[in-house]
Amino acid sequence: MGLAATLQNRPFSSPFSTWEGRSSCRSILLCLAESNFTKPSCARYVASALNSGTGPTVVIDAGHGGNDQGAKAKNPYCEEKRICLQTARLVKKYLDQLGYHVIMTRNTDAFIPLARRVEIAKQCDAEIFVSIHFNSSRLPTASGIEIFFYDSQEEKRRTFASKRLADSILTRVLRRTSAHSRGVKKGNLYVTRETSMPAVLLEGGFISNPGERANLKALDYQEKIARGVADGVDHYFKKLKR
Question: What CATH number corresponds to the domain at position 217?
Fold first, then answer.
């Protein structure tokens, strides 16, 4: 059975989200399958979405991509877009294991406009949005992990939930990595401001810091960050049930 046919026949049901939300999400994937049917990258993207769990819908956003490299440094050479994608894939893997329904805004080295990332989250009726990035500074000694949320004066409930999500993720990423904490911060960032669900943006360390850069390029350290993010997401949802 082809990808488009599989998507049309695949039921999306969950006690945590509406049929309308899952149906809209399915429509996005169907459009991808029909428009890029012969591309292996599309096949991998759609397959990863179909194989995800049936729990709360979580959108994982790997920052940058394509011609947008993000931060970069030499010796050893490092591009932010690559580490974002590698870490985001690991986050998805661990959340899948916990039963969450995970959608990635990109699963290949592709440029996705910020507005499109937000649209994916809204159309999928996501319950939370987590964007993965890495930092850079003119000061090579700058170090640590920080996480941002948008402080909306009009959406107090979403602001409160975003802050709780940020606290939960940062605490558990620090626990896994033993990195320096730069704290939970308010930030006027497009993907956290324009989304309609609790949303955070993680800056997982400084590519401009030679010591941190070496860590960030290592798979075992990326796994620590990813496990911390997954732990934080899981803790956030478990607290909601209490």
Answer: 3.40.630.40
